[in-house]
Amino acid sequence: MRPLRYSINVTLDGCCHHEAGLAPDEESMRFWTAEMARADALLFGRVTYEMMESAWRRPATGTWPDWMGAWQVPFAEAIDQAKKYVVSSKASGVDWNAELLQGDLGQAVQRLKQEPGEGLFVGGVTLPLALADLGLIDEYVFVVQPVLAGHGPTLLAGLRERIRLELVDRQEFRSGVAALRYRPTRVTS
């Protein structure tokens, strides 16, 4: 069974707005590129999908935009080429190597997890909350930014039940960012 990994940037006070942390640097982009490489497919809600598409879809010209540095291109290529699944009740169709997930969320994600492969990656805020509530996330990767945002959406706000996690890996970046990898602990009675 493929593991479902939730990876997100988060500030020290729990904010997970994409602009709340430090601007990406070469080291963090290498990390995120490696995360993309560990995934057979990406799972996004509509809002995250549209945000990622607007930033990382290869332009029709085939040339990456001038604002993109050479160190950002490997990530851009990885996410652009990745298979994507989009969960949405509002979108009527998607492209960018994507398809809509239809029907019951839990059942649809369980089917994806049962396919062979290295793993699935989920990003965003709302969809991961629903998946965590369903107990479907196998690994949490929090890229902790040394920033206090003071506002914005917070990580897994509204989670129905507490999920106990076990730290399985830690990576520190020169910028002060720390990538913390956790797995849920299974409670045995």
UniProtKB/TrEMBL annotation:
Superkingdom of origin: Bacteria
Pfam families named in the record: RibD_C (PF01872)
InterPro entries, A to Z: DHFR-like_dom_sf (IPR024072), RibDG_C (IPR002734), Riboflavin_Biosynth_HTPR (IPR050765)
Bacterial bifunctional deaminase-reductase C-terminal domain sequence ranges: 6-177
Name under which the protein is recorded: Dihydrofolate reductase family protein
